[in-house]
Amino acid sequence: MDDVTRNLQEDPHSLTRDLRAVVDDADALLRHAVRDAGAGYSDARARLEQSLSAAKDQLATMERAVAGRVRDAGRATDTYVHEHPWSAVGIGAGIGVLVGLLIGRR
After folding, report:
1. CA distance 72 to 60
2. What does pLDDT average to over the chain?
3. Count of Cβ atoms closer than 10 Å to residue 44 Cβ
4. Nearest-CA neighbor of 32 among 46, 14, 15?
5. CA atoms in the 13 A half-sphere facing the CB of 7
6. What does the alpha-carbon distance between residue 68 and residue 73 come to, in Å, rounded to a whole number?
7. 35: CB partners within 8 A, 6+ apart
8. CA distance 10 to 41
9. Choosing a second label site near 102 at 20 to 30 A (CA), which of 24, 45, 61, 84?
10. Largest Cα–Cα distance in the chain?
11. Which residue, among 56, 45, 44, has the nearest Cα to 18 in the 3D structure?
12. What residue ranges are annotated as transmembrane (predicted)?
């Protein structure tokens, strides 16, 4: 199990919290920009840049983890189809019939 998967399983709301922090920092930046362009503005801008950087890093890491899992699932499916071709054909036909029935009901 990689670090991203472990982190998401231990704390599934971490990405939500990080994105909330970005939104809060952007809100603070806008409030300070409207009021004045003093020290509060530069502090809010620095926090926003920091939050954006952290969120981008975490999203990129999650994207790589998801891409790896999708690639692994594709390989497993390919292996299964090569080992059990007639089962795969039967499963595909069954799914096709179900989709056809669902579409036909409309």
Report:
1. 18
2. 79
3. 20
4. 46
5. 10
6. 9
7. none
8. 35
9. 84
10. 71
11. 56
12. 86-104
Rounded distance, CA 58 to CA 3, Å?
11
Task: Please state the length of the chain.
Answer: 106
* ∠ CA 82-80-5, rounded to 5°: 140
* Residue 52 token pair: 């954006």
Burial (0-12, 13-18, 19+ Cβ within 10 Å), 21: middle
Rounded to an integer, what is the distance from CA 29 to the centroid of its chain?
26
- Say if pTM beats, i.e. exceeds, 0.90: no
Confidence at residue 82, expressed as pLDDT on a 0 to 100 scale:
93
Structure tokens at 16: 């939500």
For the ranges 6-10, 14-18, 55-59, 66-70, the one whose mean pLDDT is highest: 66-70
Q: Which long-range contacts (CB under 8 A, 24 or more apart) does 12-15 make?
A: 14/58, 15/58, 15/59, 15/62
